[in-house]
Amino acid sequence: MYIREDAQETIARNQTFHRRKTPGTALCLVRSVKALQSAPMKPLNAWDMDNDWRAYLDAWLEYQLGYFERRAKLADDLLPAISPWYGIAELTAYCGGAVAFEKTTSFHLQTIDDIENPPDGLFPSDSAWHRLVLDGMAHLRERLQGRLYVKLRGAACPIDIVNALRGNDLFSDVYDAPEAVHGLMARAAEALAAWMEKQYDRADHVGGGVISGFETWLPGRRFGHLSEDATVMCSPAQYREFARPYTERALAGFEGAFIHTHSGGAHAIPDIAAVQKFGLMEISSDPNAPRAVRLFAEMEEALRGKTVILAVTPKEIAENLPLLERNHTILWMDVETLSEAEDALRYVRRVLPAEKPPVS
Fold this sequence. Notes:
The protein has 360 residues and is an alpha/beta fold. The chain has helices at residues 7-20, 49-70, 128-144, 158-166, 170-176, 178-202, 236-250, 269-273, 292-298, 314-319, 321-325, 338-351; strands at residues 26-33, 81-82, 99-101, 106-108, 149-150, 155-156, 209-211, 217-219, 222-227, 256-262, 278-284, 307-311, 328-335.
C-alpha cells in the first residue's frame, strides 16, 4: 500500500496547478524535516558497487522508507518516491570514464586529455552505469511492493556531460578547438536523449506524468531534473553557441523539461529561460551568491511564463509575496521539525493556494 493515504488528492492538486497555471498559486513541497531524518547510512565509499549494488539499494530503500513513513501524514504536495542514488556521478558517468566515490557523493573523473583526440569507448549504449541506474530502478520497484513510486534519477545537459569528461579545460577549448567541442557536444546530446528515454520508460507513470529526481511531479511527457550547472563557468554567448542548441536537440522527443541551475551562474539565466521546453526552472541558491528568490525578482520578466521553483523560508515568502502573487511557483522548504513544516504549509495554503476557482 502506498505510503500516503491522500495520494490521489495530492496528484489531483498537482494536475490542477499545472493545467490552469494561475498566477498567485503555488505548490509547497517540504523536502526535508531534519528531526525525522534517520542516522546516516554507511558511507558510499565503503560499498563495493560493482558487486554489492543490490545490497546498497536495499539499505537505501530502508533509509528512505523510514523517513517517508515518519512524515506520511504531512499533507504537502510532495509525492514520496525513490530512485537509485550513488552520488552525483551517475548524471554523466553512463557516457564513459571512471568514477571516484567519497563518503557522501561520487565524482565523474576527467577522461579526455586532448579535446581533438578523445579516447575510444565514450558514449557507450550500455555500461556498468546504465545497469546501476536502470536495473536499479527495476530492483527498487520489485522491493517496494507499491509503498513508494519509482521516480526519475535525472540527468545532466550536454555541456555538463562534456565538462565532466574534459574537465574545466573545456572553457579554453571553446577558443582553441571550437569544432572539436561542437563534435563532442553533438555526441553528448545524442547520448542524453537515449538516456532520458530509458529512464522515462522505467519510471512509474503517475496521474498522467512522472516524478522528477527532485520529487516534483511533471505532467505529460516531460523529463526532470536536467542540470545546466556548467553555465556558471561560461559566458551567455558561449552558452548560446556551445550549450543551448545541444540541449534543445536532446529534448526533441519530449514535451518539456524541468531544469536545475545555479544562482552562481545568474548571468546565463535569461538565456537558459529562453529554451522553450524549459517550462519549469529551479534556481539553486549558492554560497556567496544572491538568494534565488532575489534573482527571481530581478529577472522576473525573463522568467515570465515559467513555473519557477524556489527553495525558500516562510520569511522569504512573506517578504516577496507580491512577486509570488504575480507568478506561478513551486516552493521548496527545509525545516527542523514536523510542527514547523505543518505551520509553514498552513501559511502557504492561505497566502498562495495550490489552486483558485477559475474566473467565470
